[in-house]
Amino acid sequence: MAYWLMKSEPDCFSIDDLAKRPNQISGWDGVRNYQVRNMFRDEMRIGDRAFFYHSSCAEPGVVGVMRIVSNAYPDPTQFDPKADHYDPKSTRENPRWLQVDVQFERKLDKPVTLATLRAHEAQLKGMLVLARGSRLSVTPVRPEHWDYVLKLAGE
DNA sequence: GCCAACGTTGGC
DNA sequence: GCCAACGTTGGC
């Protein structure tokens, strides 16, 4: 089983939004980055765990844990002219963008803010979300980093 | 709102 | 294939 970190702007889709979905499952749609698409397709597997990370907000950081519950499949929003992430160059015969389904597992008792992560940079050396200029919305997390972040959350 | 960093596009 | 222009991300 692999570990991941997945960013979302809480104004757009927060961990509480995920927890309120039927069965607490949602498609992780809207990804329009080839590296992330390839990770969905080639590396992510059902049963993997992911941190839910709130970005572009007052307190960016890790706020909860979720589970990957589907394989990669075409993101339907790419075909919808009214959707924010509509891609006119993508077709149903040859879809360009993929998504996976995620299921809410739990919120952290104590969210781990970006500032806290940075304060522990020595122990989290190599964690991609801390890398300078890192903009990927989905990144792999090493098991030792996963455990350490949970420790920072008081677990 | 600013701006650094980075990805994508498209002319050549 | 190069690279300038442009768009996006995301912390601050």
TrEMBL record:
Residue ranges constituting the EVE domain according to the UniProt record: 2-152
Q: Please name the CDD domains in this protein's record.
A: EVE (cd21133)
One Pfam family matching this protein? EVE
User: How is this protein named in the record?
Assistant: EVE domain-containing protein
Q: Which organism is it from?
A: Sinimarinibacterium thermocellulolyticum
